[in-house]
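Please predict the structure of the following assembly.
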Amino acid sequence: MSTVRYGQYLRDVSLIAQSISYNMLAPKIARDPSGAIIPHVAPPVKLQGLDVYRLLKNYTQGRFIEQLKAVAPLAIYLMLFQLLILNQVIQDSWSITFGLFGVIIGLMLFMEGLMLGLMPFGETIGNLLPKRSSLPGVLTIAFLLGVGVTFAEPAIGALKTAGQIVSVEKAPYLYTLLNDWSDVLVLVVGGGVGLAAVLGTLRFIYDWSLKPMIYGSLAPGLLLTLYALTDPELEKILGLAWDCGAVTTGPVTVPLVLSLGIGIASSAGKGSSKLSGFGIVTLASIFPVVGVMLLAIYVKATVPVEAILAAAKSASQVGGALPWYETSPGVDIVLGFRAILPLVLFLLLVLKVMLKEKVKNAGMVAYGIGLTIAGMCIFNLGLTYGLSSLGSQTGGILPAAFMKIPVVETSPLYMYILGLAIALTFAWILGFGATLAEPALNALGATVENLTQGVFKKSLLINAVSLGVAFGIAIGLAKVIFEIRLAYLLVPSYILGLVLTYFSTEEFVNIGWDSAGVTTGPITVPLVLSMGLGVGGAVGVVEGFGILSAASICPILSVLITGLLVRIKTGRAAKALAAEQAQQNA
Amino acid sequence: MSTEKRSITFLTDVRLITCIVQRGLGDTIVQAARDAGAQGATVYFAKGSGVRERLGMLGVAVEVEKEVVNIVVATEQLDTVFDHVFLVGQLDTPGMGFMYVTPLEKAATYIPHELVKQLQQKSAESAK
């Protein structure tokens, strides 16, 4: 009687198993006459349809879901709020859905392209530049790179979109900055980021403390804000100026500038400081504010109001016959190319001309750059039709909860106080949810927990930042609704921030000020910007900027305060422990 | 307790299944192995190359970064786990990964105390 193992039997009936000797597959190696091996080149693999499908599915699925997770909850929240609380049908729901889909696809392609195409450039340059160039040369490149990445930042496009909604009669200078001067505006913001990159790099090399830099850069910012308060026209651009800081620190700027800075620091032999990597984000969000205010003062001094009004009038008259590249969707695609190509050309030029280095993995890099450009174009399209459209729609009817606005016939929907509370709660939850979902915050949380040896828990940081942003956005919305003067909000909070900075340790200063930057990603920024402008338009105020800037300072305060509390608590615990030990010893 | 001698129980008839897949797919492999009866798995990160360079354009779809999944199984389980992991991981697709089995001489880990006693009694009985 023969026996068969049950497992073997199962295997035989469910799976066709066969074995082949590996010897039959291994290639025969040819040798040249001297007996040396001729390098073997493996032939390309022939792929079948199913293989291609499986490979691509595996490649795209995870990346798609990652972006879907960031976009979908916010979009669904906005739509549900509009449907259930405000009882309003979502207009253009199809184009918004397609737009949101475009945002997801666009971000997915863009991030993948960034990893494959642009990041290797940044790292190579960061590693090689200090060895082959003097310090001033290195700093010049860092500066130019800062300018270039600002143009490539997806959220910058949202600023330009926002400019189209501003009324020229009510805020002529704001209008002209966002329309006629929009390229100069981005250039100035870029200059600020560039300067931040330079100082950040110097900080890497010389191990400077962040505190004096914060004092030094905030002082002119606050002084200029106070100066702008004296001029009713200048005051209207304050919201834009402070919001610009939040816009700059997105998914392109932070990693690219960081990879350059860390590369430089490590080849200078100073890379291992545990705080290296922090600080640049902070500076990159303060300098542009100062730059934009200076630009506004310059424009105010040189261009009279009448000229702006006349130009806007003539622009609106020819508005019917704009060429294809100045109307959507043409303009979105043009903007996509214009954002990425200069940056790529600049990086290529530095690599080829200054460093005389070949591009490693050229095919892969080209593929990555192609993806980046395609992603940027699709993202821009999605921004116009999806995120911005949804944000301004919800923003436009949000005031219907507490006041009478022409769009909604049955408004006000609720009693004044209740409606106002609903609107502010809506903003609060929006801020909290959007921040919790931000992937950069999760990464920062993990870093911080490591840095502080677990004293500052990851969840604690995430909660502190999210709460800060939530209150920030709610306060910002209140600012737009009640036309609170932004300076009255920002100046005291930043001064409080400075006081807290003075009392905090270097670590928490770095963490706290940087956490403001990571919270404002490519999804939050357009959504909040367009929502603010929508609310502003519906309530009838001059400008709806400023929400983002409030959403920037509040997390700084909340993290710094949490840091101080944690320190006091651990200090007490350590003291108690020491006392206990002393008792035991005695 | 202090009078009792400390003891160690070896496990024999063990095999090691090693499965190398792209970064991010290790969890599906571990889950498949558990579904097929494996008790646990160890995962570590590595870099690998091979088919990726021969795929042409599609090479970009394959991660260079890999996860190496180590699964220790009993000889009786070996084929079930091996086949299941292979099928779930779709290792018959180029670039999806590689797996192999290594014989292990012995292993030791936590084994529930009463289980050890039970098995010892059984083997003692069969020896009689």
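Helices of chain B lie at 26-35, 75-88, 113-127. Chain B has a mean pLDDT of 88.
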